[in-house]
Automatic annotation (TrEMBL):
<dbReference type="GO" id="GO:0098552">
    <property type="term" value="C:side of membrane"/>
</dbReference>
<dbReference type="GO" id="GO:0009506">
    <property type="term" value="C:plasmodesma"/>
</dbReference>
<keyword id="KW-1003">Cell membrane</keyword>
<keyword id="KW-0732">Signal</keyword>
<dbReference type="Pfam" id="PF00332">
    <property type="entry name" value="Glyco_hydro_17"/>
</dbReference>
<keyword id="KW-0449">Lipoprotein</keyword>
<protein>
    <recommendedName>
        <fullName>glucan endo-1,3-beta-D-glucosidase</fullName>
        <ecNumber>3.2.1.39</ecNumber>
    </recommendedName>
</protein>
<dbReference type="InterPro" id="IPR017853">
    <property type="entry name" value="GH"/>
</dbReference>
<feature type="compositionally biased region" description="Low complexity">
    <location>
        <begin position="444"/>
        <end position="459"/>
    </location>
</feature>
<keyword id="KW-0326">Glycosidase</keyword>
<keyword id="KW-1015">Disulfide bond</keyword>
<keyword id="KW-0378">Hydrolase</keyword>
<dbReference type="GO" id="GO:0005975">
    <property type="term" value="P:carbohydrate metabolic process"/>
</dbReference>
<dbReference type="GO" id="GO:0005886">
    <property type="term" value="C:plasma membrane"/>
</dbReference>
<feature type="region of interest" description="Disordered">
    <location>
        <begin position="444"/>
        <end position="467"/>
    </location>
</feature>
<feature type="signal peptide">
    <location>
        <begin position="1"/>
        <end position="22"/>
    </location>
</feature>
<dbReference type="Pfam" id="PF07983">
    <property type="entry name" value="X8"/>
</dbReference>
Amino acid sequence: MMPGIFLGSILLLIGMLSNAAGAFVGINIGTDVSSLPPASEVVSILKANEITHVRLFDTDAHMLNALSNTGIEVTVGVTNEEVLGIGQSPSAAASWVNKNVAAYLPSTNITAIAVGSEVLTSIPNAAPILVPAMNYLHKALVAANLNYQVKISTPQSMDIIARPFPPSTASFNSTWNSTIFQLLQFLRNTNSYYMLNAYPYYGYINGDGIFPIDYALFQPLSAVKQIVDPNTLFHYNSMFDAMVDATYNSIADYNFSGIPIVVTESGWPWLGGASEPDATTENAETFNNNLIRRVLNGSGPPSTPAVSINTYIYELFNEDKRPGPVSERNWGLFFNNGTAVYSLKLSNSQQISGNSSSVFCIAKQGADATKLQNGLNWACGQAQVNCSAIQPGKQCYNPDTVQNHASFAYNDYYQKMHSAGGTCDFDGTATTTSVDPSYGSCTFSGSSNSSSRTTVPPSAAFGPITPPSGASSRLQITGTGISFLAIAIALI
C-alpha cells in the first residue's frame, strides 16, 4: 500500500489500451507540484495501470532511476535553459547525453529527447542554435551507438503557424524560415518525427466565437456547423484534427514529406478564473475522453489518414506552482494525492466502435457524504437493491468508500426501475453517464461487459478527494486485470 496515493483513482484514469493499429495515448509528467509524490510511487502508479509511455520535461535522476527495468518508454527533455549551452558546444552536448541518457540505458528505456519546449516562441533568441543543439546531441548519440534507439526532436506550439485554417493553406510563419527548414531536414535525415503541442482549448478561446465549442471538444456538429476546408473539401470533425493537418500542410509547404507528427501535449483545464468560463470539469472530461477515443481509432487526419495521431495528454498532476491564470494550475488528471479529478476511461471495444449506448446511474463527484449514505441505505434497504457485491471481501467492496458503494447501489436500482419510472436523482446526489463504471471483476448492471473491458474504479472516477470518515480509498497494488492505455502516444 502506498501512503498518500489513492491507487483506486489511478486505475480509473485512462482506460487506454493500445488498439490494433498500434496507436496509443501517453501522458506528460510535470514537476511544478508542491507535494509531488516520490518517484518510486509515481512509477508504481504507472506500472499498476500498465502505462507504457511517459514524457518528462527534464532528466530527474530519481525518476529515471525509478523507471529502470520497467520497460516504460521515456521521452526526456532538454530544458530551455540548457538549449543555449548545448547549441554552442559539442562537448556540452556529449556530456549531456552521457550523463542523462547513456548512463541510464538500457535499464531505463529512453527512446526520445525533446529539445526545449516551444523554443521558437518562448525564447526566440535561441532559434539560431536550436537545430545545432539537436545536431550536436545526435552526434553524441551516434558516438555512443544509441542513435537508432533514441530519436531527437523539439516540441513546437501552433503559434509558429501563421494561419492554421483552412489547413490546406496553412504555412509556418516566415520569420522562422531558415530554422524550420533546418529542423525539417534534420527530422527527415534522422528518421525522427515532428513534435507538436496542439491545444484546441486555446484555439477555441482565442477564436472569439468563430468556432463552436463542440468543434473543440470533439462533439458532433450539426449540418449547418460543419467545418469544411474549401480547397480540399475535407470535413473536419474536430479542431484537433485540423491543427494536425495544418501542421502536415505547413511541412509540405517546405517540400518535405514522410515526417510523421506526434502530439506531445494536448488537454483541457478543468478549473479557471472568472475570465475563464470554459475551463470546467465537464469540458475537461469531455475533451480528454473524446481525445482518447479519437486517437485510439488508429486513423490520421483527413490529409494523412494512414498515420495515427499519437498523443501525450497534458498532464498527470495539477502543477499548483505554475504562475499565470488559474487554469495554468489545473490541467492535471490527478490531484497530487493520487485521486482522479474526473472520470477518464475507455474499453478497448469503445475505443474502436465509439460510445456505448448504455446509460448508468452513479453518485455525483463531491456529493454530500451524509446524503450519499442516506441514499445508499435507502437503496440497499427499502428499495431492495442487491447490495451483496459491495460487502467486505466481495468484488465491488474496494475501493471502500461511500461514493463507490452508492454508485453501485444507485445504478442497480436505476437499471431495474427506470423503465417503470424510477429516476437517477437520490436527493440530488446521483447523475447519469454513458461511461461504463465497471472495473476489474466488478460489473455494474447494464454493462455490455466483457473480460477485456478496461474501466476505472468508481471511487477513482467519481469519488470524493477525501473518503468519508472511517473509510479507506487506498488500494494495494495488485493485478487488477485492468489494462490501461500507455500514457504517451508515440508514432510507429
